[in-house]
Description:
Blueprint: H1 4-16, H2 26-34, E1 49-53, H3 57-68, H4 73-85, E2 107-113, E3 118-125, H5 131-141, E4 147-148, H6 149-158, H7 169-180, E5 204-209, E6 215-221, E7 242-245, E8 249-255, H8 257-263, H9 265-274, H10 279-292, E9 309-315, E10 320-326, E11 330-335, E12 338-343, E13 345-348
Parallel strand pairs: 3-4, 10-13
Antiparallel strand pairs: 1-5, 1-11, 2-3, 2-6, 5-6, 7-8, 8-9, 9-10, 11-12
Helix pairs in contact: 3-4, 9-10
The protein binds glycine.
Glycine (GLY) binds at residues 201, 203, 221, 223-224, 233-235, 254-257.
Amino acid sequence: MLDRRSFLEKSALLSAMGFMPRALSAEELERELTGATLGTTPGFRGRPCVVSSANGIKGVKVAYDQIAGGTDTLDAIIAGVNLVELDPNDQSVGLGGLPNEEGVVQLDASCMHGPTRRAGAVGCLEEIATPSLVAKAVMDYTTHVLLVGAGAKKFATAMGFKTQNLLTEKSRQDWLRWKSRLNRNDNWLDHDDDVKINWTHGTINMNAVSAAGDVSSVTTTSGLAWKLDGRLGDSPIHGAGQYTDNAVGAAGSTGLGEMNIKTCGGFLTVEFMRNGATPEQAALKTLERMVHMTEPRLLDDRGRPRYDIQVYAVAKDGRYGGAGMYEGASFAVCDDTGPRLEKCAYLFKAADRAR
Ligand code: GLY
């Protein structure tokens, strides 16, 4: 495989030597430059598979059944994550997601469609329960790939999405408890109940491949609980929260988004697969890179990360894998043997978790 520069240098050299190479078709040129093929790969027969974070256990089955019935991979996985976005009891995504420090639910999502090599995303979107669908609308109806804040909401309402209050009573109560315990000297009474307050950067990432080898990915989240107003995590960032290359596969992640952004985790995992790693090996290598890129304040004195993150990946031929920084995480998968949770590979044993 030639890189673009070598290809151009080689072409110039051949011309200078008097060779007049046959003009390459667009598809041949693309294959020469990237090893990829344009769009759907003719004649490819693979094994359909959907892989996601563990909270997508119901969604992977919905997505798999749709793909088996001929639905496009991106439409199918968005239907899969919509289940979680619309579930008021999942406090990490969509309706019921934990709010920012001001009590406002701000949602991030992005998606990529392998066959058309198109992408869309929204960040800090308020009052729309299904940011994954708004991200796809950005992809389908605009020349942009990312809309944020008030502009994203304006776009969504113009496209017909309904606005609603996303802060459920449970999430509002959790936010007030968090707020009242911030400072012993403020005017909020600390209620010493033993209600556990979630501190989450939960998310759902889902990736799929069809029998024809078409690949897509989507990630959607309410982001880090109690975040500063305007914070974007990795989920709306292509190449971080998720990434698809139809020639290789797709990958995405859940966990501390800032670390994933610095490592370009989705892109890096796909690149490791392009270079021969299995999906699980690729996910583990990305986690190793994250540790390498971690700033000292997030490492303990033994160099162990004080955060968690998981990476999920599917290859064009239907192989899949998931890995977490620490032992104990699982991921959801559905293929022709049905939906199930599997244990993530990991870098560090649970007993060695940073304290
Ligand atoms: N991975 C989700 C977030 O950090 O926002």
